[in-house]
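User: quick one, fold this
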Amino acid sequence: MTYLPVKRLHSRADFLFAKFEEGGGTTYIDEAIDLDRQALELCPPGHRRRPVSLTQLAIHLGHRYEQLEAIRDLEEAIVLDREALDLCPQGHPDRSQSLNNLAAHLSTRYNQLGAMQDLDEAIVLGREALNLCPQGHP
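Assistant:
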């Protein structure tokens, strides 16, 4: 399947993730994550779709963590979120979402491990994300 373009890999992973959310079992999320990894491999540093690939993989890993509570999934999601955020500097249209994603995963890790620095960082990132949203933003 590595011959498929990145966008098709993401679409297929999204389909499998939806099946997982419908109660289809962990095989679906595992396969979605495998496809996300393939897509990321096709997006080396500098590739325009790398931030999207990082984010999608991080989100799916975060959801698998919620299901299986394998801390390595959450840890990897945080690493990927940090890289995605680095690719969204001030003024980037996706910065608010990247900040929010990282804050959410750090908050989850705080709830699991109790590391106060995770909570502190999540609060700072969440505030920054909120400040980037204009008044009346949904």
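User: anything notable?
Assistant: The mean pLDDT is 93.
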